[in-house]
Fold:
Amino acid sequence: MAKAFSGAVALALVHRGGLSLDDTIGEWLPELPDDWSAVTLRELLNHTSGLPDYSKDPQFQADLNEDPTAYFPPDSLLPYVYDEDLEFTPGSQYQYSNSDNVAVALIVEAATGASYDAALERYVYARARLGETSLPIIPEQPSPFLHGYVYEDDGSLLDVSELVNPSLAWAAGGIESTPIDLNRFIRGLLGRSYFGRRTQDEQLVFVAGGMSDPPGPGENSAGLAIFRYETRCGTVYGHTGNFPGYTQFIAASRDGTRSATVSASLQLRPDTDAEVFAELRHAYELAVCAALGRVRSDDNRIPRLLRD
Structure:
């Protein structure tokens, strides 16, 4: 869900005239591959850019496995895929890529002449009163914190809370926050705390079938660094995400007055944990129903697999 933060910053700059959604990588980041030069900020934000995903690159994965606690400088991430072709013609289809929001944050730095951290503080943290949200570059977390786990081969749980440096994801997944701050953030995003109606209208143009990664509740559609989730209890807007040891969901109503966050202490995905992930997705929907005040009598239960 850190991608929603990078989207908020970029759109705040669009609102102020510092960026345009039609600006290209070539205009702001001419040092990046020539094949990427025509990709627009809009295509980066709605994952129709075609940029190959650096996090899937074998050399990146090897470097990460060699020392998961190591710091990855932001400008070291995209070079892993500089020699790879675009996945498709930009704008022609949807494909979720962690490279997209790294490129967004680099454009933000080029446009502001300051660090991405500074832009987050100025355009998001300060406006939403987020006092416990940051973009750390070390694996250690401030206490107390929600511990995250992975399963060992023998079925036991390994605490990986402080074994992986979040810099590996940076603007694509490195945000550290709390449920209260996340609710404030997503309410501010839908409530136009960071940019105005005209920019929000651009943000809420959706690509049908654009599934967040991992999928959110109901039917998913992709906007600009935000997803629409159409559930049986109503429609909300937000983001999902995961990281070693964690899976996260945030969403708010269209007017930003109601919101929900769901945090899980395992990195769950439908392709690796289909049955458990289905229960987690059901929990997302229960949270949406509760936030919208539409809980049914048979909804008052904890999903069995998550409880066990």
